């Protein structure tokens, strides 16, 4: 009560008294704070009483104590004193002084704050938390000072040194009343470093300095003091001119400061029980404090700490990046939390739930089970895992290059290999399905190029030499996942195929090269022979016998010059022809290829022409869009515009299409005997592969007339064998055409479900085969126009 009356009286006196010059006013408020500690000290301990006498003498020199002061614990909280008001007044004076002066000019009040080490003293009082709540007030003062003062303060030794010390106090104890102020202070420091990245060197404290700062019990050597004070040795920062001014005059004061520091080291500072602080060394205390606060029970504090870490990892300073990854526990924090959240997931989660759970942003990981109408067991755990993975992904995406590589490798080694791989390699079908669905979701979600590279190496390995049948299991996980594409469980097959389909859409050259291209480099699937006269009889005017010219076919109206699709600005991104391989007039060739695919399925097995809106033209728009997207991705990989000359290829080497294409071709060969959903996924992956603008991929998958070497197969040859089998089996089915049309209409929702139709799997397979051939024809046509447009 008395303190409140005193505060009111003081404000009244200040309001009525004439205004003082800013510096005198500033000094008045500071002395009012220091005198509070002298006037309220009622200490019985002789040692502490003697120290207080030293402080009084120290104030006579207008300087302050630098080490911790232990005072009695039964004092009133700081909010019952005038200290917060005096600190606010000091801050307002500093801001007013800066506004009244030219930009960059340091005023007398700021000079006083720097010269008399006021921030050092405030750090001391905050560390002792004397009176209770003082740490909170000090954190607020530091935060506002750095945030409101425009001139750079951190380069000053009497600013960055106490700031560094105060950083060490942050995050030491979790769930304290000062957590909010701690994170605000740390974030303003991070923001200042983001503005001027070179300043981070002041916060890379070496180990020698850390040991010296602890001090000996009774004496501090001269060499150690020099190591502490000379930050040019620690950080490469030379002393500022203002730091050197008055050095001779302060020599006596600094000696007193050293004596006081040595004496204060003997005192025991009472502290709260500390959290398990992740601090293997003191090299990068700013990161360590933020890491500790990411564990805060308060989600808002944890998110702010994550934001601060993201600012720090993006700093371009190589020394900071090296220290961050080698001398802090950032890598361990990211991967250990990923591992723990992954392990917290239920053993079995519906793959559809994993796929359809809403998009997760790491800063918005808020979920209420009661408010969610589509809740399912494990949704909270799944969102937490995906949210943290998104944070890791974004952190690596924003990080400095060397830091990003180190972080991504840590995720690869500690999480992908250490946690995910055992789950993917298990034999339980339920476990395989859940783990593959999670891998699929992670593949879809990753956006960082560096993390994507590590994920690709994890899934596929780093091999780039051609595959051999004897070595397809060289990378066990790759082999297992590809085998799962042909698993006895259709659910596992579909999920694994979908994972590969999304993987093929990622902007990483190694994916297609590892799965397909490395086996096609030498074109040893071809047999080189000159064109025979008999081959010319097959085609008349560029058309297969009985085929219709594309420009006269009403299904091709979308590709006429007057149609909107003729405006093909996007084609400029397709790979250009090289001087060694000039483009041919391929009109005849493309007509020939398109009609070959369209005529591949016999008329008696076709049903699309009986249903409106299912013609070939429906695939053209999608093919245009998808091929444009693939060209944009692949342009930077500098693929050739034409196949490698056969004269330069090693055609004698044995050809193996590779494990991935082998499984896809095997699946395609059984299209008439597989479930509808499996067939859709197999053909979807093959169409994705066909869209890649690489000449060897185009030749192997889309050229029906390539001269295959003995014992080799291509996509076209596989389909031809399926069609041959189909022609035999059609003869055994009564009313084949009406049943086929009825199945198509049911699949399109044009007919209600009725009695089960005989041979339903075969009929659905025929429909998928017909649609797939139309899709391949559209892709071939679009790719031809892309290569023929200048």
TrEMBL record:
Coiled-coil spans in chain: none
Occurrences of domain FHF complex subunit HOOK-interacting protein C-terminal (ranges): 657-749
Residue ranges of the region described as Disordered: 565-586
InterPro entries: FHIP (IPR019384), FHIP_C (IPR045669), FHIP_KELAA_motif (IPR045668)
Family: Belongs to the FHIP family.
PANTHER family: FHF COMPLEX SUBUNIT HOOK INTERACTING PROTEIN 2A, RAI16 PROTEIN-RELATED
Protein name: FHF complex subunit HOOK interacting protein 2A
Source organism: Equus asinus
Gene name, Swiss-Prot/TrEMBL: FHIP2A
